[in-house]
Write a structure and sequence with these properties.
The protein is an all-beta fold. It folds into 2 domains: about 20-120, Immunoglobulin-like (Sandwich), CATH 2.60.40.10; about 125-365, 6 Propeller (Neuraminidase), CATH 2.120.10. The chain is built from 1 helix and 28 strands. It has one helix spanning about 325-330; strands spanning about 20, 40-45, 50-55, 65-70, 70-75, 85, 95-105, 105-120, 125-135, 140-150, 150-155, 165-170, 175-180, 190-195, 200-205, 210-215, 220-225, 230-235, 240, 245-250, 260-265, 275-280, 285-290, 305-310, 315-320, 335-340, 345-350, 355-365. Strands 22-23-24-25-9-28-27-26 form an 8-stranded mixed beta sheet. Strands 2-8-7-4-5 form a 5-stranded mixed beta sheet, with no helix packed on it. The longest helix has 6 residues, at about 325-330.
Amino acid sequence: MNKPYFILTLIFLSALFFSCTETSENEDGKLIDFGFESSRLNFAVKKDATLPFNCKNAKLMDAIELYVNGEKYKEWSNPSSTSFEVNVNLNLGVYSMELRGYQKNKLISADGRNLIVNAAEKPLELIYDLKASHPHNSTHFTQGYEFHNGKLFESTGNPNNDGSTKIAELNEKTGSSIREKGQPNPIFGEGITILGSNIYQVSWQNQKCFVYDLNTFEMDTMFIYQGEGWGLCNDGESIIMSNGTHELVYRDPLSFKIIKRVSVHTDKGVVTNLNEIEYHNDRVYANVWMSEQRRQQDPDVDLTKIMEINPKNGSVTGILDIKGLVQKSNKKGVPNGIAYRKSSNTFWLTGKYWNEVYEVQINTKSIQGAR
C-alpha cells in the first residue's frame, strides 16, 4: 500500500537465549536480578522448539516463573540449576513474555520482552510459467482482483482524491469495464471478494466495508470495523481480511464481526504488510507491500514476492518470486492483484496502474530453495 501506516517494528533474532545478568542485590547481598540487554527487545523461537535460558544466581531464588501474555506458562520451584528449558507449545504469533523471580514468596526480580514464535519449516521456493499476457486498464489503481463464476472483477483505490474508488466487472479480453459502481470522495477503496450473491469491498482508513448485490451492483448494506482495511478473500464460509500487519483476520460475512486472527510467519520471522489476497486450494496467496516504515524480519520477503500461506496456522508454505513480471510491467512496481481462474487453473497477476495482466501457472511442487 503506497500510504502511511504505523506498526511496531520487531527486531528479528534467529535464536532465543535469555541471560540473567548481575544487576542488583538481594537481602544477602547476592546479585540476582534478571536483566536483558536493553537493545534485545524481541526474541524468536521456532514452533514446538525448546526455549532455553540461563540464570547464574537462580539457586538463590525459591521460584522462577515464565509468564506469556500475562498468564503463567511455566514454574520452577527451588531451582537447583542455572540452566532451564521449556517446550514452546504456542501458535505462531507475537507474545509478551516475562520472567519473575521469588524469594520467601516475595517478587524480587522481573523482566520482560516480546516472544516471536515462527514457523517450524522454511517455505518452498515456488516458480511460475508465464502462459499469456492480457490488457489491463492502466488508470486502475488496483486494490482487489478476483474471478467469480468465470467473470473477472476488480476494485480500485483513490490515491489522487479524485473519486476513483470503484468496483468493476471487466472484459478479460480488453481490460475495459463492463459495468462499474463508484464511491464518492474521500473513500479510498481496497480489496474485494465475492461470497454468495454479495460483493464485499473494504476501505483503507474509512473503516467501512461496502456490500453490493452481485447482480445489480447496488449497495445492500455497510459494515463498520476498527482499523485499516487492505485485502479481502474468502474460503467459502468466512471473509478473510488483511490490514497491513502480519495478521489474517477471519470475519463473519453476515455481521463482519471478527471470528479469529491468524499470525503469518516464515521460519525466520513475522511477515507484515500483507496486502491483496486470494484464496485457492486451502491456501491464501498474498502480495506484500514494502516501505521504509515496515521492515520485514525475513530478508527473503519483499515487494516482488507472493506469499503462499496456510491459513490454518499462519505458516508461509511457499514464496513466489515475480521480480521478472514487475520488471516487465510498464510501471515496474507495486504488484497488487491476484486472481485464480478455475477454468484454466492459472493465476492472473497485475499491479497498480499496470497496463498488462500476466497469466501464470504456479508450480506448487517445487523443491525447497536455499535460504
